[in-house]
Design goal:
295 residues, DNA polymerase, domain 1, 6 strands, mainly alpha
Length: 295
């Protein structure tokens, strides 16, 4: 083998030899550093680990307490019991249906005994759920009755010979607050709704007011009626602009836009039935809405 041929590749100048020497020195230094250094990864303790574990422990304890805690049973009016509520209380489907049929006749049970007669529940179930019954304040328990016998009579307010039935559109806050269950907040809400609508046209509109319980609505219907004032400015549905229609309480902007589009393509509306053909029209409130419109 001719080594002279390869020797020319290993002929370096003085500066190159110095450079190679320095390179080897650096490589050897790095190897020594690598061998002498400890590169073992240490577990870094999270400074908040103990706090987190303590917090998680509290959460687990709360969950356990919540599972062991007994369900709180709140008082309720049995006249307005739902299917689910009745099922949870232990009533059968037939017993619940009997109560629903009784209520459809616009009748009310006023005592635990009457509730049992209507539904046909057992004495043991009655003993269990009767303490949860809460009837309106105008029904008072008679004194000296036998165990489980809960009969009620109307209070002095309703015993008065006759009371004047007022026009809800003329009622003020003081008139409304005379009724049981209506305070300052609810009375202001009723008056605000009247202001938005211009006036009430039906006592059915009480159901649209947030916060009014069924018992309070019954009281309102007993003491107030609706007299539509002649000053009510009706909306001319065939001439009203999109802005005017969208400002009406029962019409949202999207529905108002559909009304204007339908009117421009098909002509004027003759009655509420024509208007109810539009998609998303609140058909269930058509009768009330018609009293605010002029065709």
């Amino acid at each position: 083998m001719n080594f002279r041929y390869f020797s020319r590749y290993f002929h370096f100048s003085k500066q190159q030899r110095i450079g190679i020497f320095i390179l080897f020195a650096i490589m050897i230094g790095l190897q020594v550093f690598y061998l002498l250094s400890d590169f073992e990864v240490l577990d870094v303790e999270d400074s908040n680990k103990d706090n987190w574990l303590a917090y998680q422990s509290e959460i687990d304890k709360e969950k356990l307490d919540g599972e062991n805690k007994k369900t709180t049973n709140y008082l309720f009016n049995p006249n307005f019991i739902s299917d689910y509520k009745g099922y949870k209380l232990g009533m059968t489907v037939e017993e619940i249906d009997r109560l629903m049929a009784f209520r459809k006749e616009n009748k009310f049970v006023n005592s635990a005994d009457e509730f049992q007669k209507v539904t046909g529940i057992s004495d043991s179930l009655l003993n269990k759920i009767a303490p949860l019954f809460k009837f309106p304040n105008w029904i008072q328990q008679k004194a000296g009755l036998k165990t489980r016998q809960v009969n009620f009579v109307k209070n002095d307010f309703t015993k008065k010979a006759k009371f004047e039935i007022l026009d809800i559109n003329q009622a003020n806050q003081e008139d409304l607050m005379k009724l049981y269950g209506i305070g300052e907040g609810l009375s202001e809400r009723i008056l605000k709704q009247k202001e938005i609508l211009g006036c009430f046209v039906s006592m059915e509109q009480m159901k649209d007011i947030w916060g009014l319980s069924p018992e309070v609505i019954i009281e309102l219907n007993s003491h107030f009626k609706v007299v539509i004032p002649p000053s009510l400015k009706k909306i001319k549905v065939n001439d009203a602009s999109l802005k005017e229609l969208s400002q009406f309480f029962y019409f949202k902007y999207a529905l108002a836009k559909q009304i204007v589009t339908y009117r421009s393509m098909n002509g004027n509306f003759d009655n509420i039935e024509d208007l109810a053909k539009i998609k998303d029209f609140p058909v269930e409130k058509a009768k009330i809405i018609s009293l605010y419109l002029e065709f």
